[in-house]
Amino acid sequence: MSEQAIDKLSSVFREVPNVQFKQTHARRTEVKLRADTLPAILALLKGRSYIHLSAISCIDRPEFDEFELVYHIWSHEEKNLISAHIKIPKKPGEFVSVHDIYTPAAYFERDIHEMFGVKFEGAPNLKPFVLTEWQGPPPMLKSFDTEKYVQDTYDWLDYQPQWWKEVQEKGGGYAPEDRRAVIMED
Fold it and tell me: What is the pTM of this model?
């Protein structure tokens, strides 16, 4: 990134308190800021050629009882990606929607709500779109125990088709219990 582009970013970040930023690669800048300043930073960046919100990522950080949200904004003009990192408390697990600044945010916020349980105040739609029949907790939380959920939710069927019996009679294949033991040892 050019010195001029770095100066331009410095002027943006000086306008908002408690912002830390660093160039992590030639075309990538990492920004760490307080959650309450994010909408202002996004609006300032959008006015300075950072017009493409390419993603919002969520990281479950149970050791700190928080979520980290990362907003990835690209400038076609500067050829630079800014990753703006904020942290929000896991309880209540709420943050403001930024879809009024970047329209695609509505899609990412809906996904994060569905997979992590984060609520975005003012989001246009937080209805499930992948897990429409899901009755369990948000599945991307690190506390989610997939195996326990399956054991508690589903009944097991003893599936023993004839072709499988023939394979086992010839000494091939694994019995499901044997296969599980091998997987657990790896």
Answer: 0.80
